[in-house]
Specification:
The chain has 24 helices and 44 strands. By secondary structure, the protein is α+β, with helices and mostly antiparallel strands. It has 6 domains: 150 residues, no CATH class; 113 residues, no CATH class; 194 residues, no CATH class; 180 residues, no CATH class; 112 residues, no CATH class; 73 residues, no CATH class. Strands 3, 26, 29, 30, 31 and 32 form a 6-stranded mixed β-sheet that branches. Strands 18, 19, 20, 23, 24 and 25 form a 6-stranded mixed β-sheet that branches. Strand 43 and strand 44 form a beta hairpin. The longest helix has 36 residues.
Length: 943
Amino acid sequence: MDFDSLPRIPPEPRRHLGGWVVLLAIILIYAVLAPAVQWATDWLWYREVARTDVYWTMFWGRWLLGGAVAAAFFVLVFANVYLALAETPELTWSDLGEQLRTHLFNVVNRTLRRLAFWGSAVATFFFAVLIGISAADYWPQFLLFAHPQQLGSTDPIFHRDIGFYLFRLPVWELLNGWLFTSLLLAFILTGIVYLATRAFRVVAGLPVMSRVVKAHLYLLLALLFVLKAAGYFLDRFKLLYSQSNLFVGAGYTDIHARLPALTVMALLAVVAALYLVVNIWRKNFFAPLYALGGIIALSLLLLDIYPSIVQRLQVSPNELAMETPYLANNIAMTRLAYGLNTVQTVPFTPTPHVTSAMLASSPITVKNIRLWDHRPLLESYRQGQTLRTYYQMNDVDIDRYQVNNQLRQVMLAARELNVDQIPGQQSWVNRHLIYTHGYGLVMSPVNEFDPEKGEPVYYIKDIPPVSTLPNLRIKRPGIYFGESTNDYAVVDTRQPEFDYPQSEAQNAVTNFSGQGGIPLNNPLVRALMAARFSSVDLLVSDSITAKSRLLMRRQILDRVQALAPFLVFDRDPYIVLGDDGQLSWILDGYTRSIRFPYASYSTLDTAGGESAQTNYLRNPVKVVVNAYSGATTFYTVDAHEPFIRAWQSIFPALFHPLSEMPDGLRRHIRMPEGLFNTISEVYRRYHMTDPTTFYQQEDLWDIPNESSELDDSGRPMTTRMEAYYTVMSLPGQTTTEYLLIRPFTSAGKKNMIAWLCARNDPGHFGELQVYNFPKQTFVNGPELIESQINQTPEISQAFSLWNTSGSRVWLGNLLVIPIADSILYVQPVYLKAQQSQFPQLQRVIVADQQRVLMRRTLDEALAELTSAAATARPTRGAVTVRSTTRRQPCHTSHSMIALAAGGKLEAPIWVSRSRIRVCRIGWRNDFTTHYKLAGGATCRTIF
């Protein structure tokens, strides 16, 4: 058969790689272009806010650190791999190539040595880039390392300044970890290369390698042992903030067992390294196994078994005696780390009764008793004062202002814009050019409400803002920067901005007149912004002119974190109306660490709803963001704080002294609740300074619980009692202050044992005082008062009646208010009708150590509480009902029934312990219960 005559099968066409090349090119361009756009637009923003020093420090800090780590990793790893590849003889590569050609007919026509070289180089470079990117996030630690500060206090074991642990030790640990990881990977890859090329192999159970290969591997392993020795040395310092079952810090076992063991292990690791170096010239091929096995075995013996034996046989049977000096270290250092060593202790012996003389001696305190809880008040604000669907109120802030020359506590909420709820189409023009800002705020006193409607009384309300007080007027109500303002806005365009609605058919318009914003007078800038926000409209819109500016980072937390990413911010910014009529946000900046020797750990609630662990905490920075212009200024309230001293040396133009803050804003700074809550949580244990008392938990305190809204079964839901601000006079003083308070109860009990306060006024800002009750005096805690409230018949009956009559009871915060030499308890009661989620303040509960009552207003309740007989009196024109079973007035100290004269009773009902005959005929709008009498007259219960 003639094979040549057969038709030939055409060769398979080559697949074109053009599409894959284009796709790869697009990916690479995007990978380069996207970060470039981000960096360029960030630089434009930092230039606009005059903080390019922060931008370039962060930029070069990231690049230099990430580049240095990546370069070091690449050199350490690839240099060793390259040496291994270069050491392999050419004959080995030829043999390997022949074996591959036998099994793989499509081996590329290049030498394997070159392929291995470039493949390992690319792989190492890829991992070096990844490691460099992750390492770049540690730039703040390296800047602090370069600008260390002294605290002036030393640790009790090594006697080093605390600054060593906060500024230096973290970087030494990072460097040791990075170097060890790099050398370990280099050792593994080098060994793989030698195995793959058969430069290192096992023959008859024995390793076979050349002197050069042996020296290479042994030296790498020796360096690993040296780094491990450094790690053991650094671990000695880490004992001072290690966690044990009893306390944080080094205990008896750590000092007498682990600390010597770590020192010995560090020396042994160095000896192992020298042992490997010496064995390069010897024929002992098992030296690495001996060295590694010895280190592992001794580590288990010295660092695990031996300390466990010491702890079990020596410490546990005599724990208090053995651990007392180290527990004393933990107490002292914890109090130093949280500033508890500055807490002033004041004895306080409360009397059981609140008298009218006490109230008369503290009129400002009484006028500032908070009746509005932030939760129902926020609902009330939203229902009555958002006014349009595109406005929203995110939170209610509490503050103090001068009202008619008196210090008054107020609650206020900013009216921010919600662009997702704007009317009409969700067009780009509407979202970014027309609807650009919120408008004004709402302000009301904490203790005033309309008794008929249960609504707050407003100092500032409506749109445009209407103020009832001449010193509280808003001159610039526009809110371009806020808590929930997440989108960008373009201002000074041909399109007027919506300001506020004037009528159904007409709106007021405005143009932004602030100084902020990135100018869009350059086509390149517009193109960059269009790329950043993925918006072609920014590039082609005719509404944008050469005068137009773009406002970005309008969310205030995002704004301040971009300017100071090395600080942690409190979760609750608050808005302030300054003396100049402008609105500003104040944010609290924290410095923290988890490396304070012997200090116990706690959690801090930070911005974004996250909880951060800490064992050192300060609040040295207050940040002011103008709600209209976005101007952001950092003020230091504690310029001596070590972290702030370091950051001031790095960014000298970023921070300003508190004296430069305008007086109208400085009067509103305060200790944030987040810091105070953390401090109070720590203090409930660390008020005990005696190690024996602390060990036995003899005087442990707790945070009491409080009731809130009732659940579906009518039972109050309990939450941990919040710290609260109040305007009051401290016991024994006549001046009124703005305080932050939290009470304590005995652990496992419900009697109140103390209350802690933070002072916020100039001259005493940041001072902490604790008022301790005598241990022999029993004082009702909040939970006991709430139990008495629930056990008071007319109150519990009213709650049951309201919860079954088309409404729900909502209990506000129970406030513990020191009044002169006594304690006053106040809790507001709100009602929410089922057909409307509009909460109304309807009753006020007051109590002292012996009496609990509920009345329509606070004045009525206090008047009755302080009356000599503590009984209610009939209302004008009414007669007291006589019991059908006992000839006595049908009322108790907590309730009464007032009847029209001449009425007769129809149906029986129990009120307190007196049986009377009435017939309920239903509800009225004021949520009181009305009854019908036989003679046609009506009555109502008064609570």
